[in-house]
Amino acid sequence: MRQLVIGLLFALLWASAAVATKFGIHAADPLILANVRFFLAGGGMLLYAYLIRKGQHALPKGKEWLYLTIFGCLNTTVYLGCFVIAMKTVSAGIGSLATATNPLFIMVISALWLKRPLKWYEIAGMLLGMAGVAMATWPLLQDSHATVGGIVILMLGMFSVSVATVYYARINFGLSSLVINGWQVFLGGLLFIPITALFANFETTHFNAQFWLSVGWLILPVSVVALQLWFYLVRKDAVRASLWLFLCPVFGFLYSWMLLDEPITWYTFAGTILVIGGLYLAQREKFRKQSTIPQNQ
Question: CA neighbours within 13 Å on the CB side: how many for 257?
Fold first, then answer.
C-alpha cells in the first residue's frame, strides 16, 4: 500500500511539470523562466550540500568537472531548454506524453552505444510510441494547440536527455547524487546564459506571483519531492518503478484539460494507449524476468 501511494504521488507530481511551465511562460519569456529555475534549483542543492551538510560532500575534481559540464549541457541546457521553449507552441498534454517516450529513446541509444542489435519488440515498441505521439498531436496541429516546430524541438529535448541518461550511466562519479545533480543543473544554467542574453525578450517578462509560483512548483514539488519519490521507487524495484511512468501522460492530459482548457479527443486516448503499449512492449523482457523472481514474504 505504501508503494502504491508513493507511486501515485510521484506520477501526479511529475506529470504537473508541463502545466506549471505553461503557467510560467504566460508571465515570462521561456528562456528567462528556465534560467531562473536552473540557478535556484542548482544553487539551492549546492548550498544545502556544502553549507547545511558541511563536510559531508566532496567538491568535483579533475575530469569530473568536464563530465559534469557535458552531463549538464545535455540534461539541463539542451533538454530543459528545449522543453520550456517547446511549451510556448505545444500543449501541456503533448509535453507530458513526449516525456513518457524517454525510456524508448534510452533503449535505442543504449543499444547503439553498446553496439547491441535491437530486438524486434524493442523496434516495434519504439514505432508504436512514436505513432502514439503523432496520433495524439494530429488534431492539436489543426486546432493551433501545437506546431510542427514545437514538436521537433520537444523531441530534440527528449533525445538529448536520453543521451544524457546513457552517458551518466557510463561515468563512474565519486560524488553523491545530490552534488552531481546540483552541479549539473547549475553548470547547465551557466551554459544557458548566452542563449538567454541573446534571444530572451526581457520586456515581456514580469516577475509577478504567477512567475514565482510556477518556478517554485517546478523546483520543490517536481525537482525535489517527485525525484526523491522516484529514487525510492527505483531502489525498491527498478522495473516496477518504470510502470508509474505510464500514468504520467494520463495525468498530464487531465491537468491540461482541467487547468488550461486544452482539448481531449479520441485521438488523445488512442495516442496515449499506443505510447503506453509501446513502452510496455519495448521493456517486456524486463517485466518477464521480474515476474520469475520470487518475492519476499
Answer: 11
The answer to pTM > 0.70 is yes
In angstroms, rounded to a whole number, what is the distance separating the alpha carbons of residues 238 and 268?
28
Phi and psi of 12, rounded to 5°?
-60, -45
Number of domains making up the chain: 1
Whether residue 92 lies inside any domain: the answer is yes
* Type of residue at 50: Y
Q: What would the pLDDT profile of 87-144 be if each residue is shown by its tens digit?
A: 988 988 888 888 877 777 877 888 888 787 878 887 888 888 888 888 887 877 777 6
3-state secondary structure of 90: strand
Q: Which domain holds residue 264?
A: 2-289
Q: In which residue are the cell numbers 579533475 written?
A: 62
Cβ proximity of 192 and 77 under 8 Å: yes
Establish if 67 belongs to a structural domain. yes
The amino acid present at 47, given as its one-letter code, is L
> Measured at the alpha carbon of residue 110, what is the angle toward residues 108 and 112, in degrees to the nearest 5?
70
> Collapsing DSSP states into helix, strand and coil, what is residue 103?
helix
CB hemisphere CA count around 292 (13 angstroms): 5
Amino acid in the structure at residue 98? A
Collect all residues with Cβ–Cβ distance below 8 Å to 234 and sequence separation of at least 6.
Answer: 241
Q: In this structure, is residue 295 part of a structural domain?
A: no
Non-local CB neighbours of 207 within 8 Å, separated by 6+ positions: 27, 28
Q: How far apart, in whole angstroms, are the C-alpha atoms of residue 292 and residue 176?
A: 33
> Domain for residue 297, yes or no?
no
Q: How far is CA 71 from the centre of its chain?
A: 14
